[in-house]
Amino acid sequence: MLLIGAHMSIAEGFFNSLYFGKEVGCTTIQIFTKSANQWKAKELTDEDIEKFKQAQKDTGISPVVGHDSYLINTGTSDKELLQKSRETLLLELTRSEKLGLPYLVMHPGSNPDEKVGIKKIAESLSWVHSKSKNFKVKICLETTAGQGSSIGYKFEQIAQIIDLTEENQRVGVCYDTAHTFEAGYDIRNKKVYEATFKLFDKVIGLNRLKAFHINDSKKDFGTRVDRHEHIGKGFIGLEAFKLILNDKRFEKIPKILETPKEDDWDKKNLATLRSLYKG
Ligand code: ZN
Ligand code: MN
Ligand code: MN
């Protein structure tokens, strides 16, 4: 079965994200574990958890992937922001665990000094791991476009973070097709596609790959600007998505849209993805 879906809103309750997903034809979805643009989080009640788990049974949608909120920067040199970021990441990991999510995708973080940033991120992950013994949920570092001073736009940076992290068997990776393309990894034809994933395997390891963000790019190759576009409407084009969807190695890996949502675009993008699948 094709494991495709989209990021869904939790504004009307965690459980509704699943029914909304079902409505547009998702077999997997991604959600924020709390409001994405503020530090504070509404309490997660037992009722929220129960309703969510019931909705997951009803819809059959699995896995549900978590995504962390935007203010978190575990790579910062600002002590206060760093501590707040770590605590919020731990809170989000705890909420993910309670909801039974297998993965929490996070943006690694940013720092004008790449080396320092990588060290801070790894220390942050180690700290979060030390406070969440026996959790099943895994943190997945997302590949980035490299906009501003964000870290994670080179496979080597992701590999270094994992390498420096304690209990790093608990760390996975989320491959965002728009970000990596914007960062300078090409997948537009079979030849470069194979080369990029061969490199990913060599530097990070394909066994770390737990999720895809399936986005076309509004910006051209290597621009390091992060702008998502509808599938087939951007600079990446359909061939790359066809290759991913039909790659046996990635069959069981959730592929999630983070494309603009106005009108019926989730439905349209999912239909496009389905049309590319030959299985
Ligand atoms: Zn993301
Ligand atoms: Mn993404
Ligand atoms: Mn993005």
Going by helix content, strand content and strand pairing, the class is: alpha/beta
Question: Helical content, roughly?
Answer: 40-55%
Largest sheet: 8 strands, parallel, barrel
Main sheet: strand order? 1-2-3-4-6-8-9-12
Give a short summary of the structure.
With 279 residues, this protein is of the alpha/beta class.
Can you characterise this structure?
With 279 residues, this protein is α/β, with parallel strands linked by helices. It has one domain (4-276): TIM Barrel. It has 9 helices and 12 strands. An 8-stranded parallel barrel has the order 1-2-3-4-6-8-9-12, surrounded by 4 helices. It has a two-stranded antiparallel sheet with strand order 5-7. Helix 1 (14-24) packs parallel to helix 2 and helix 4 (114-130) packs across helix 5. It is globular and about 45 Å long. The N and C termini lie close together (8 Å). The model has no long low-confidence stretch (mean pLDDT 98). It binds zinc ion and manganese (II) ion (2 copies). One manganese (II) ion is lined by residues 142, 176, 213, 258.
Helix and strand topology:
Layout: E1 4-7, H1 14-24, E2 28-32, H2 46-59, E3 64-67, H3 79-99, E4 103-106, E5 109-110, H4 114-130, E6 138-142, E7 150-151, H5 155-164, E8 171-176, H6 177-183, H7 190-203, E9 209-213, E10 216-217, E11 228-229, H8 238-245, E12 255-257, H9 265-276
The structure holds zinc ion and manganese (II) ion (2 copies).
List keywords for this structure.
two-stranded antiparallel sheet, eight-stranded parallel barrel, binds manganese (II) ion, 9 helices, TIM Barrel, about 40% helix, about 280 residues, alpha/beta, single chain, binds zinc ion
